[in-house]
Amino acid sequence: MAFQTPITIKDALERIHDREYALPAIQREFVWSQDQICALFDSLMRGYPIGAFLF
Predict the structure, then answer these.
(1) Alpha-carbon distance 44 to 30, whole Å?
(2) Of 30, 22, 10, which is closest to residue 55 (Cα–Cα)?
(3) In the chain, fewer beta carbons within 10 Å around the N or the C end?
């Protein structure tokens, strides 16, 4: 299995905006609270390690 070169969240969001990546419909409702979303972005901005995103 080949792995892609890592990219930043900023690059991923730009590629989504430029329609290089398509976001598929998900099968269930969005389940994170606003506080959980804020905590995730706080961790990202602090450079804490997180799991991989699947593209």
Answers:
(1) 20
(2) 22
(3) N
